[in-house]
Design a protein that fits this description.
The protein is of the alpha+beta class. The protein is built from 12 helices and 12 strands. InterPro entries: DUF4743, NUDIX_hydrolase-like_dom_sf, NUDIX_hydrolase_dom. It comes from Puccinia striiformis.
């Protein structure tokens, strides 16, 4: 049984933080997060900074006021939109959907927590009821031209959002809270899940990577470099099912080949802000795929998501990483590959420990 409330923590005010800097060493190679630094302009953040929240994703003071674990993070602009929705529902003699918790009796302050109203959480089909009201809300926003930096990328694909686990039912996925259109996940700071596959060949013990360039018409990160295959895990799918499907859809790779050669190699987890400022906690399941060195099998664009694939040496790949050419989470996946395969080590990276550990941040939010 799901928790009575599924609160969403309100984003705390940002606090100043130090910018990650590059250490000076006598080496001619670029040290300190050398595979992650974006140095092409002063106002661009390091990829690592993009994968680090402004401050801890939720604070203990907010948590102490509500016994339920948060399931997302809200910016003030979303809080206002939820308050407006409550008022609009009252105007048409309907029940408000959003329960607002304030840090004090002064309701002029910004709410510290938002959850579904009790009548929704207590519905017999509570999972579908939550989903219906969220869908009504976000479709209304889209129709009224709100939050189009996210909602213009509407996919008609649903992501699963989970609530705190019930100790009486610990089966994976038993704590499903609701499903929501994937384009809206970032608006609420919900945890999302994806898959990333790195296809590579080895020649004379050197790694070469099949790197695609994202289509210039993509709603997010157009024309950036990407991982060989990547995609979100939609509701009802497993990571393995997703990566098999995406391999064919994005790279024209045969399913039978993939099933025989793909290797599941763990995951990375992080919280970052996308280019529009939305807080996005993500967990990415990572896969490796070694292809024949004679190029008898070559990834090819299939669904229009990518413009082309280029076989890049390790040196070329690290050069593009340093120049900020990759979508940030794709850069993180490649760095994880470099660590796992001994390309990046404590001997050639002064900040090896920081690089390694920042790719395994706690999720803070409920897991399946």
């Amino acid at each position: 049984m799901l928790s009575h409330q599924h609160p969403v923590a309100v984003e705390p005010k940002p606090t100043p933080r130090k910018r990650l800097t590059t250490r000076r060493t006598s080496s001619t190679s670029k040290p300190l997060l050398s595979y992650l630094t974006r140095s092409n302009s002063d106002d661009q953040l390091d990829v690592l900074q993009q994968l680090t929240p402004d401050q801890p994703a939720w604070d203990q003071s907010t948590q102490a006021r509500d016994s339920s674990q948060p399931i997302g993070f809200l910016r003030p602009i979303i809080i206002k939109a939820l308050i407006d929705d409550n008022q609009n529902m009252l105007k048409i003699n309907s029940r408000p959907c959003w329960k607002l918790s304030y840090p004090s009796v002064d309701q002029n302050e910004c709410p510290s927590m938002v959850s579904f109203e009790d009548w929704i959480n207590q519905a017999e089909d509570r999972i579908e009821t939550r989903a219906e009201h969220l869908d009504r809300l976000i479709r209304g926003w889209k129709e009224n031209g709100l939050f189009l930096d996210q909602l213009s990328g509407w996919r008609d694909e649903e992501y699963s959002v989970y609530g705190p686990k019930d100790n009486q039912n610990t089966l994976p996925g038993a704590n499903l809270a609701f499903r929501i259109e994937r384009a809206a996940v970032g608006l609420f700071g919900f945890l999302s899940f994806g898959v990333h596959l790195t296809a590579y060949i080895k020649r004379n013990d050197q790694y070469w990577f099949w790197i695609p360039r994202r289509s210039s018409t993509k709603p997010t990160w157009p024309s950036k470099l990407d991982n060989t295959v990547a995609g979100g895990i939609t509701s009802g799918e497993t990571g393995y099912e997703t990566v098999i499907r995406e391999c064919f859809e994005e790279a024209s790779l045969d399913e039978h080949l993939i099933r025989s050669k793909i290797k599941s190699v763990g995951l990375i987890s992080y919280t970052h802000r996308n280019q529009f400022g939305w807080i996005q906690p993500e967990i990415q399941y990572c896969y490796d795929l070694e292809l024949p060195s004679d190029n008898s099998i070559i990834p090819k664009p299939n669904d229009g998501e990518s413009e082309d694939f280029t076989l890049m040496s390790t040196e070329q790949t690290t050069h593009e990483l340093r120049n900020g050419s990759f979508k940030p989470n794709c850069a993180a996946v490649l760095v994880d590959f470099f660590v796992r395969h001994g390309i990046l080590t404590e001997l050639n990276e002064p900040d090896y420990f920081q690089v390694s550990t920042i790719l395994k941040q706690p999720a803070f939010l409920p897991l399946p």
